[in-house]
Amino acid sequence: MDTSKFLEICDIRKSYGEGDSAQQVLRGMSFTVAKGEFCVILGPSGSGKSTLLNIMGGIDSADSGYISINGDKLKDMDERALTDYRRKHLGYVFQLYNLIPDLTVKENVEVGAYLSDKPLEIDDLLKTLGLYEHRHKLPNQLSGGQQQRTSIGRAIVKNPDILLCDEPTGALDYNTSKEILELIESVNQKYGNTIIMVTHNEAIQNMADHTVKLRDGVVRKNIINPNKITAAELDW
Amino acid sequence: MRNPLNARIIRQLKANRKIYLALFIMLTVVIGFTSGLFVANNSMEAAAKSSFTDHNIENGHFELEDEIGGLRDDISAAGITLYDQYYKDFSEDKDRDGTEDAVIRVFTVRDEVNLASLLDGRMPQSSGEIVIDRMHADNTGIKTDDTINVGGISLTVTGLIASSDYSTLYKKNTDTMFDAITFDIGFVTTEQFAALEGKTVWQYAYKFSETPEKNEKETAEELAEKIAVIAATGGITDNKDTAKELSNIADEADILSAKGDELKAKAEPLETEGDELKKRSEELEAEGKKLKERGTAIEAEGKELEAGKAALEQQGAELKERAAAAQALMQKDPSKAAAELKKIQTESDELTAKGEKLAEKAEDLQKRGDELKAESDELQAKGEKLKKEGEKLEARGNELQKEKDELEAQGDKLKERLNAIGVEDIDALENITTNKLTDFVPEYANQAIHFATNDFGSDKTMCEYLLIVLVVILAFIFGITAKNAITKDASVIGTLRASGYTRTELIFHYTAAPILVTIIAAVVGNILGYTVLKKVVVNMYYASYSLPKYVTLYSSDALIKTSVAPLLIMSAVTIFMTAYKMRLSPLKFMRHDLSTSKRKKAVHLPKWSFLNRFRTRVFLRSIGDYLVMFVGLTFVMVMMCFCLGLPSTINGFIERSGELVIADHQTMLTSDKDEDDNEIAPSNGEKFLMTELESVSEIKNGEVITVYGYTPDSRYINEGEFEENNVCVSFDYADKFHLKTGDTISLKEKYSSAVYTFTVSRVNAREGTLAVYMPIETFKNTFNENDTLTGYFSDEPLKGIDEDYIAKVITADDLTAMARQLDHSIGNYAKYFAVVCLIIAAALLYLLTKQIIEKNSVSISMTKVLGYYNKEINSVYIRTTTVCVVIMSVVCVYLGTLLVDKLWRAIMTKMSGWFTFSVKISDVLISVGGTVLVYLLISLADMKRIKKVPMTEALKNAE
Question: What is the extent of the structural domain holding A186?
Fold first, then answer.
């Protein structure tokens, strides 16, 4: 298996609405992501980056084209298979965290751990995430950065092949954003997960292995970054 | 400019159409049924009330032991007009198979008071025709033109009526419940009435000539007292005190008369003894006379003997002189002297013999004299004894004379007292024709007239409460729906608030949909209430009561209570709940931070498995919804327990009635003595005494309590002896009036102010009766003989007494009259109501589980995104609700049984009689099983709903 095509996006098209009001969001988008790569998808609002991420996550489906992971095409999967795909291979990190409000920090992480046969040791992970002392708190007792760390913990506790991050720093201040980016970077380095991060913060492309720039539903630039810097070195 | 947000209201309704439709249907049904009940109620109540004038309903009626006769004018003088309302009770055999199907009370057709409303056919015009009660006819299948057997005579039913004084078929006003199945009333022509052979009950209806000044109760009590007095005194007086004086005089006269008789009885032997004494005196006198004669004879004989003795002595002396002369001659003439001496010797011997005879006679005379003396002494003693007896007799005679004088003096005093109250002499009392008031029922206390109209009131009250409770529950559901809409629209609301929309505008925006639904439901409900549902209620009333025709009336009261009140409740609850949520700042809305409390801490949970903790968190998050579910299910379970338990309770009561009666036959006699004043004693049965008093209690006044006096060795009521004023009470009496051992009870006489107070010494296990038990001697010492009834308990019908002396026989059937009527009128509907309850439970569970799922839709969506299978999500969100529903069903049904017991007790306390409500385990299982089954069906829809929750939900929203 060619690990440079671990994730293959091929001529993906997607439109919403019907007839005259139909709006094409993705207009034939293609690129590949290698296993263990840190890929940043950049683009302005309406460029289709979140739609693309949803299709990658099996949450939404493309009108045409395909996405394959490790050679398995998502469009060939039924609902059960898609669920298994998300369960086994994906971890999600959202801009607004999407934590389950009535579960504690530890329980939110357990939500992810439950899905894996071999989850990471939760307390160790919580310590890594700097959340151990907050483990019995509810999300509404945490700061934005702590909530996002919990969200990352929930995503990576099952050690997924791919970590999909949708604007993970979009709701955070500069310092907290950098902390989160450092955390994602360390996760990538420590566990070797493939990371797909959607963001409109162009500075983040500097820490990525691979940057895909979108505009109006098409890939404008597909850049491999040979001189990536660490998250700590980022500045914007 | 119109508020642009208004366009969203319809969209909100569309978006939540299932919830709003379900709520709309429930509200419409509840408002419709309540409105129908109110309209039917008000219309029928108005018809029933107009009966008082349209059908000239009596102010009351009473019954006398005998025909009123000359007392009519005396009783009318109390300010009332009397109307004869005689009746005869007969057996009714509807299919003429020789078996009694009911008891029919036959009157003559009335044309003055208590007129009947003809509902079908025509009134009887000749002999052989009868009209009967419409409801009884419906209940038993009798139709116009049918022929029924009344007291052995075939009569054609020419029509069906509703009699204004029997809108509820109470056989007797003191009966626990009416009975439209085994009791009927009918009207025949005067000729037919006369031709029906049976005991006439002399009933008289009355109307006041002028409206009384005093209240109904006081007026009725005074009138009853007057009638009772007039009847008892044969019209001499209507004054209670005078009657009492008269009664006292009569009692004292009876005592005087008895004493006179006693005196006479005492004088009679005295006279006999006097005569005997006189006879014995005369006999003694005769004997004395005889003795005297014999004494005189003995005396004469004694004198004769004395004379004889003297003659003999003379002769002896002469012989002695001749012997001396002969001796002297001896010398002179020895032969002559010897001859002389020989002659003298012969004469001397003769004289000696005579002397001896005389001595014998004297001795005999002496003996006879002694005997005579002894007899004389004896006679003397007898004479003295007789004299003493005579003296004693005289003394006793003097005593009797004294007593007689005293009695005469007392008689004179009584006469003076009689004169003082206008009676000429004591003999006049003997000629008075007295009567007896046997029953008195004022109109206001007549259950046959008022039970139905009172029931209208209680139905309305119950329905009002039902409506309020349901509207409040629905309002909470509406409120929760609005709250959820606010949660969903949090960012929109934040933006609108930040843009300048006021909190009030937004509150009204989010409460508009529920209020609009309520208004539409009120309109549609009222339309249904005035049309379809009114008929349902009317039919229910017609199945229970014998009511006249009615005209549908518009009721502003109904409109207010079924439209305005629900609208206000709905608005208040939803506005309050919405306003509470809306008080947050625009920023918090924009941040989706809608927690109303300050940062809540997580509840610490034990080290359960992750999924169990997850389920617990879901439960804790939706605890408000589960509380609403709990309240709603409790309400539903109360209704379910009532609906399912009522038929079971009634049937159980009927089945146990055989065990509940004191004896298979409890026969009440019309009198304890026959016309010859001999005690009426049947050949079987055990005597008891009975009276009926009224309760004096904070719980309920005027409840009829039966007081029994039982024989010491009673086989039927064996409660033993008690200390003075101590009694035993029945279980039901204790239960209804919350009595326990040591409590004091007060019981009042029906038609007087006399109150008796007793201490409860024991509570026995007897159910089905409100009774007090005491030994017969205590009973006799406590109550006036005139106020008590004599009866006999027996296993078989009483034997050896005339039927005319039997006033009433109480059997198990009488005890279950209430139960049978309830079973007929409500029992059939109960099952349908139970189904309605299940539908309400289904709607409640549907709405709340939907709310719970919608509240958690983002989390559900998120778990899907993370890769959870639907069955895993179901196991978290649905299993939690399933466990809650099962536990709640069990807890709520338990609460339901407790609450329905309280509810039943409250209902029964207002009614006469008592029996406890029991919910069978099978009813509990059906309630729980039905609810769980309904929930399981709903949970299938919930699974589908969870399956439909889109994963994009998690991406669009943020908590």
Answer: 36-64+88-233
